[in-house]
Every structure is written in C-alpha cells, then in structure tokens.
Amino acid sequence: MLVSSILVIFLLNFVQCKKLLLTGDVLTSLNVQLQELMHLQKLATWDYETNLTDFNLAKKLEMDVNLASFQKQASYNLSKYKWKSERDGVLQRERLFYLRLEEEILPPKKYKRLKEIMSKMIHIYSTAKICDYSYPTKCDLALLPDIENIFAGNSSEDELRYTWIERRKAVGPKVRDLFQEYVQLVNEAAQKNGYDDASEYYLREHTDPDIKKKLKHYNRRLRSLYEQLHAYVRFKLRKKYGNSTSEIGSIPAHLLGDLTAQKWSGIAQVTLPYPEPYENFDNLKQQNYTVTDIARLAEDFYKSLNLSKMPNSFWRKSVFQKLTDTNMTCNPSAWDFYDGQNFRLKTCLKTDREGYETLHHWMGHIQYFLQYQGLDIKLRNAATDALFDSVGGAFSLAAFSLKHLKRVGLYRGEISTKADINNLYTLAMSKIVSVPATYAILKWKDKILSGEVKSEDYNSEWWKLVLKYQGVQPPVPRFEDDFDPGNIFEIISGESIWKKFTSLILQFQIFRQLCETDREFQIFDKASQLHTCDIYQSVKAGAALRTMMAYGKKKPWGYVMKHFLSYGRLFDELNPVPMLEYFQPLYEWLEKENQKNGVFVGWIL
C-alpha cells in the first residue's frame, strides 16, 4: 500500500511540476520518494539473504519490481524536460543517473523473472549440501564452514578430489539452465539500452575505448610474478602429494586450498617459504577473541586515521558469523539502508587471518557510505564501483603490515627478511593469484555475453581459459552438463567482473598514495619499501581518503582519481606498478628459490 501511494504521489507531483517548475527543483521530492523505496527494497533483500525462504523471496521480488517501476517512470518523465540550459554540473549528473536505466528497462514480467533467476542461482549455491567422505550417510556438509575447512585443512588427496567433485554435482547442473536464461535477459536489457550486448554494457563506466586492451596488458605485466608463484607452489605440492601434480604442467584444481582455485590462501601455511610460526593468529582463539572483537580492532584502525566510528546499528544488526537456525548467503557484503543511520555487514567469519582481513576490507565499504551520506540519493555511490573494493583492499594491505600486526599482538618476534617474505607470500596467495583467476572469469563472461561462445560450449571454454591464464586443470574429465563456472559466486550473482579486476590493481595505487601522503613511502628513496608502510594513526592519510570518498558520484572516477593520486601519469588510469613494487622482494626470492630447486617456470598446455 505504501509503495502504491508513493507512485501515485510521484505522478501527481510531476503533473504539478511540469506546470510550475522548469528547473531541477523537481528532483527534491523525487529524491525523497526514491530514497524511501530504496530503503524498503534493501530491507527486503536483507531479510531474504539472511533467511532464504520462499516468503522472503516473494517480498524481495515485489520490492525489486516496485523500485524498477518507479525508476522507469522517473526516467520517462524526466526525459520530457530540456535540461541543457542548467549550468550546475553536479545537477546534470544527477539527472543523467535518473535518465539512465539498467535492467529495469525490461518489461516488468521479464525484469521480475531476471531477479528471480539470480535469486534462485544464489539460493542453490548457498544451500547445497554434500555427503561426508568418511561418513557417507552424513549428508549435511555445507560450503561454509564444512567444505571450506576440508580444502584449507590437512585432507588427503582422495578426500579433496571427492569433495571437489561432489560440490560441483550439487551446484553446476542445477544452475546451468538458469544461467542460460539469465544471459538472454541481460543481453535483451543491454540492447534496449542501446548496446550490442551485455559485454559492452558492463563497460559503460570506462570511457577509455582501449580498456579491454589495457586490462589484457595489465594481466601480462603481472604474469611473470604469478608464474614464479605458480612454479613454487607446484614444487611444494609435489612434495606433499607426489605425482598427483606434474613437474611442468598445470596444477590440479582440488589441491589449491579453495573450492574454485580463485585464491590459494588455504594452502599458504603448508607451503610457507619459512615455516617458523612468525604470525600469531592462533592467539585470537587463545585469548577468546570473538569475531566482534576483531571488528573492534578494525574500527580502531579506521578511527586512528580520524575516520568515522561504526554507528550503533552496525554493532546491533550486522551478521558476522553464519546463522545456525536459517539458510543464508555467506559471501561478504556491506549494506547501506539509505536512511542515514542503518549500516551493516553480512558475512560468515571465523576468528582467523581471513576473518581479520575480511573485516578490515569490508569496513572500508562502510566508511565510504558514511563519508558521502550528505549527498542526494543518486550521488550516494562510489565514482566507480571498483573504488569500494579498492579502498577496502588498501586498508586490508595496511592492516597486514608487520608493524601493525605486532602492535595488535598478531605477530611475535623481530621483524626480519624471513618474516617479510612469509607475509608477502601469504598475501600473494590471495592478491596475486586473484589476478589471472579474475581475468579468466572476465574473458569467459565476455565471450558468453557477446555470443562468441554458445551454450553448448560453456564448460569447455571455461577450462580452456582457466588452463591458459591460471595454469590450473580439473582433477577429472569435465562435461558440459557439469557447468563448473556455476560454482563461482561472482558469475551466478551477476557481479561486475570488470569491477573486481580493476580493484585488484587500483587498491595498490590507493595504498601507495596513502603511504606517500604519510611519508611512509618515498618513490626516489631506494631504501623505501612499499610493503613495510604502516599508516596507523596517520591523520593526513585519513583526510586524503575522506576527501576522495566524500565526492561520491558527483564527479567521474577519472577526475576523482586525478585529484587523489599525485604521481607521474598514474592519474585517471590503472597502473600495475605499485602492485609490482609491493611484491618485488617476494618476486626476487621466488626467482632465486625456483632456480635453486631447478623448478620449471610456467606450464605446458
């Protein structure tokens, strides 16, 4: 009833405004109404993702459709006005965002079907269960925490292979047809928006016509470091699993500590360059730390930069650990409920290194929300979606400086070269490994959406790209019905892969700038090393970041980055140099270690 009333009021207001107002004044009431709808839609989505029931899904879909209808009508009505005489550039951008539609350009039934498909795929992904390898009648193993623990633990090769196969049986075949329908609908929406297909539509924020060539170049620039890391890990895995891994070929996916091999953090501890226990994350458990306590550590870091503390709603309503009495989605996410006071995180964490990293990262998203709250509703967003993850990623890097880990009691002993290499190695198993993994997803999805690859070749093309860019292969033969990409959350949830790839590089640019602002890193000082930078209590770094985040979407992202980044030509474009600088000591160590062990670098296709 409330939604219907809002729509009626909106239409009546437009009739009046068309008679009386010929300027942007009409946006004032429009913003209020849109904000209320977005708030209601976000509440319904939260209720569904924290309790995956049919009832909650129906409520969510209802709010999705109502919000889409409102935005579609707003776009149509605003298009009747000639705004070119308006001199306010920010107002022009705000109006442009109202005029620009996304998937809501579809007819209501098709839009609802698209949202339903995406919700169903996420539901299958989040609720799938498999049977235990050792106890076949125990068939309640979920992705989190059960399957994740198997891959990150000391499991046998047989158990890893079994779990890898069974999880894929429980997800891939069930989402394949849904994904095919999803492709048809997002392409239809893209075409209605004036694009050839959705692969072009998802690049709309990138004004650079050569962006695809540049991202390919960036992946190549980082490949040498990845190949050294790949060779070292393969060598270590051969010691552990014997001939299960080739000396010169690709690595079987089930041995890499992660169900999807998107990051290899799960095997970092068993392949460490120096196995001495420098880190002390076990101390969190010994001191009875909770996930909330780790979140307090993260908040303290942000507050030390004179950034905002987390609001009361964050502590009261966030979900930090998997709920035991309901099915829920566990992939980390930050939530702005568009009421100026309700901000939350949703994730399923443990008191370990990953929990520490995740909370520092995602609290960066909340900081972003808080800094642009004073803007109109259509401007409350990052200049580009990649900036959210980039800011969060920069803070996770800062939180892992050995100086800071020692400060909070998570590192013991003296800071040494060996400790540096271990720390860089563990971070590389997430950050560096994610680059070719994300690029493979990007290439695959681009080919699917453009129609270059047909549905009958989805899975074969997937493994061709994973082998080419990651040097990873399936442990058993795969077939089209297996649809292994369906096990990648970013694929079935419709997230922007361009955003993810961009943020992997941009976070190091932002981190370097924060370090330069605090004079913790100096470009022309050969003794200055980026990975040793510690920006804790740097009010200057915090002020620079606050200014960037406060822009929201008022300015294009090139403009925002140009005013934030200050070195050379690294203004409004991506540059992998800071990422390479950060990991340079590890690269040199890996190169020497692989030479010493006579390890083949690369992989035979």
Automatic annotation (TrEMBL):
- Which biological process annotations from GO are given for this protein? proteolysis
Q: Where does Zn(2+) 2 bind?
A: H361, H365
- Gene Ontology molecular function: any one: peptidyl-dipeptidase activity
Residues at which Zn(2+) 1 binds: H361, H365
Q: Which residues are glycosylated?
A: N51
Record text on cofactor binding: Binds 1 zinc ion per subunit.
The region annotated as signal peptide is 1-17
Q: Which domain of life is it from?
A: Eukaryota
UniProt-listed InterPro entries: Peptidase_M2
GO CC annotations, alphabetized: extracellular space; plasma membrane
Q: Which cysteines are joined by disulfide bonds?
A: C131-C139, C330-C348, C515-C533
The EC code for this enzyme is 3.4.-.-
* The keyword Metal-binding is assigned to this record: yes
What this protein needs as a cofactor is: Zn(2+)
Q: Which UniProt keywords apply?
A: Carboxypeptidase, Disulfide bond, Glycoprotein, Hydrolase, Metal-binding, Metalloprotease, Protease, Signal, Zinc
Which family is annotated? Belongs to the peptidase M2 family.
Q: Which PANTHER family match?
A: ANGIOTENSIN-CONVERTING ENZYME, ANGIOTENSIN-CONVERTING ENZYME-RELATED
Entry protein name: Angiotensin-converting enzyme
Species this protein is from: Acanthoscelides obtectus (Bean weevil)
